[in-house]
């Protein structure tokens, strides 16, 4: 007797009955701590994966005091475009930018004792931002709440304390805001769990995500928890104001060392690497736009021209450094800079410049007291001059590598060195002879290679 057909039929019936339950999936995404520009790429990646895999639900586990407006706006836009239902699970608090992200979700669930609101923009000192920033945030909150069927006027009052609300229409009923402190002029709206549910801002209260899933008959669903990838964590680390300031310091320091020394060496490698990390992280976090890229690249080209083409250090070098600093400053701001971001960017730029200067002074002090330096430039008299080992080149001949008017570069004995004439101008490719050395500059005069007589 063949038992395979009945067994196969039974298996098919079992899969048909249990298939939907077995295939149920729920994504959980943490939005906790400070909202920075490293967070939006993470959220966008999860939502893009959800659009492809089609889970039953995306739950954003929110506990934040806020952060960058531009970062929160990008997250809000991604959530609004999600083809998968979304829930904001406010686990304790969704303040400032966290309130905007919560309003973008299809539903808002809060734990007992949680809060949502206080979304006005402030600077580092806690002072209210400009009306331009407040107006932008107010309308973002209002439009997002309206799109999700929540009281838009109440969302505006979370941003602007000048808004006064006495009554709201919630599901056809008039609800007084007399007991809500933020309903009065001069006070921002911040809602507790109970008030948020009663005023139509939240949809329910549960103490855990598991309890929430049981209420929706998804207790057997596969819960897939996401966390930022190493590259996303790296971007968040590199865009931190302290780290970006350090990268700027190293970059500026390396470029200055490279400008003041012949050829391309350690200083150039350190400078390019540090600035590449700064620039790359800003680009991945979408802080850098084409304008900042043009400023940065133009400044870099001017500095390279100063190092390899134009003798000495002048307008091109100073202009290049200025353009690069301005480009880096703009990269730290983002699309919608608040006063806080402006101050952080300005502080970071100053830290970068001061750090570079201090690092240069420290490295020079270490260089002048090192054994290697003493071997290269031995001190035999109180009236010594530092020649950085170039005194052995006196009397040797070479060829200019750049025009000298009167400073430039030359190849002397296979070494690229800074040279200076006694006032005359020389072109590129002119034979010269070293007549003296002062510090790291060799003084030269032109040589007639045909007669071997100096000119």
Can you offer a commentary on this structure?
Helix 10 crosses helix 14 and helix 13 crosses helix 14 (339-368). The chain has 15 helices and 16 strands. The chain folds into three domains: 17-228, 2-enoyl-CoA Hydratase, Chain A, domain 1 (Alpha-Beta Complex), CATH 3.90.226; 231-368, no CATH class; 391-454, Nucleic acid-binding proteins (OB fold (Dihydrolipoamide Acetyltransferase, E2P), Beta Barrel). With 455 residues, it is an alpha/beta fold. The strands form three sheets. Strands 1, 2, 3, 4, 5, 8, 9 and 10 form an eight-stranded mixed sheet that branches. The chain is elongated and about 100 Å long. The N and C termini lie far apart (115 Å). Helices cover 46% and strands 18% of the residues.
Total helical elements: 15
Gross geometry: elongated
| Total strands | 16
Helicity range: 40-55%
Q: Per CATH, what is the topology of the largest domain?
A: 2-enoyl-CoA Hydratase, Chain A, domain 1
Rg from Cα = 33 Å
**What number of domains?**
3
Largest sheet: 8 strands, mixed
| Mean residue pLDDT | 75
Can you tell me the residue ranges where pLDDT is under 50 for at least 5 consecutive residues?
A: 1-22, 377-387, 451-455
- Note the gap between the termini: 115 Å
Please identify the top-level CATH class of the largest domain: Alpha Beta
CATH homology-level superfamily of the largest domain? 2-enoyl-CoA Hydratase, Chain A, domain 1
- SS strand fraction: 15-25%
SSE-based structural type: alpha/beta
Proper CATH architecture of the largest domain? Alpha-Beta Complex
